[in-house]
Design goal:
alpha/beta; 2 domains; eight-stranded mixed β-sheet; about 25% strand; globular; Protein Nterminal asparagine amidohydrolaselike [Xiphosphorus maculatus]; NTAN1; protein-N-terminal asparagine amidohydrolase activity; hydrolase
Length: about 300
């Protein structure tokens, strides 16, 4: 619906290219420079919720102080999108790539569903305070690569966030020229990763030299109960939360790609079933003809 730029100005339409966007919105460029000028923080493991590629999660420190930082890294042609509610402090983060954004068509790609989930989870954890503040959006990643894949991701995400059914305030769009540097003769990304301190509501560049696999005990117990028929299953909302108020990381699924993969299998099964039905019908026809011959009909 509406993207508001720093200062409250409304973005009326999506430009045709990244450079056009920056030419028309210089305040975003200044905000990007302020972000990339900061030093990367080498992150630790304790109380950190790490989002891997093609994942998304949401957390609220007011009820779950076991998670104070939420972050992701390795956004080269990928993009990390952060949504933060200014009043409740609830933060949602998604790590989007070619597969999520445009590779199998924008209309049914994973980034659209991912954005809807992020907004839903922010609303659920904000518990009635969603309209009391703004949702600020930061997008980082997408350095200037040779094939131009990153630029496609950037524009695909920008078009997608304009279509969500709420007002979003764009703070950073740190992509393309604002996130590109030259290292040993090759272009690479300036920002290696991004992190948000849920307690201070601060967003900063970060490095994660490890892979964290959190033990989401609540979901594991629920899955055990479901499979073994022991006890009651959780409500649908709680089923997707960790203990207290953190929505667990979920895979960003590409519906178009899924359909592309399963369609040949479905067609093959249909052809096989049709062949079997034809054989059955042929047998029935032959059988009844023989009966008629015996009866002299």
């Amino acid at each position: 619906m509406v993207i508001q730029i720093l200062g409250g100005r409304t973005l009326l339409s999506i430009p045709g290219s990244i450079q056009e966007f920056f030419n028309e919105n210089p305040e975003i460029g200044e905000s990007n420079l302020a972000l990339t000028s900061r030093e990367h923080v080498d992150m630790w493991r304790d109380r950190v919720l790490f989002i891997k590629q093609r994942q998304q999660a949401t957390s609220d420190i007011r009820e779950n102080d076991k998670v104070q930082w939420i972050g992701s890294h390795a956004a080269m042609t990928c993009h990390i999108l952060v949504m933060k509610h200014t009043v409740t402090g609830v933060v949602s983060m998604g790590h989007f790539d070619n597969f999520c954004c445009w590779q199998f068509g924008e209309e049914s790609s994973a980034h659209r569903e991912g954005l809807d989930i992020m907004l839903y989870e922010i609303g659920a954890l904000s518990r009635g305070f969603i309209d009391d503040g703004r949702i600020e959006v930061t997008i980082v990643g997408g350095y200037t690569d040779i094939r131009g894949d990153a630029a496609k991701n950037s524009m695909s995400l920008l078009r997608a966030i304009q279509q969500v059914p709420t007002i979003l305030n764009l703070i950073h769009f740190c992509v393309g020229p604002y996130n590109t540097t030259v290292d040993n003769g090759s272009t690479t990304a300036i920002l290696k990763g991004i992190c948000v301190d849920l307690k201070t509501k601060t967003l900063f560049p970060a490095m994660f030299n490890w892979c964290q696999f959190s033990d989401f005990k609540t979901q594991i117990e629920d899955r055990f109960r479901t499979r073994n028929g022991v006890g009651e299953q959780m409500d649908s909302e709680d089923r997707f939360k960790t203990k207290d108020s953190t929505f667990k990381p979920k895979s960003l699924r590409n519906t178009a790609n899924r359909n592309k993969l399963i369609e040949p299998k479905i067609n093959t099964e249909r052809a096989q079933n049709k062949h079997i039905d034809n054989k059955k019908n042929s047998f029935k026809f032959s059988y009844f003809n023989r009966i008629n011959d015996i009866n002299g009909n």
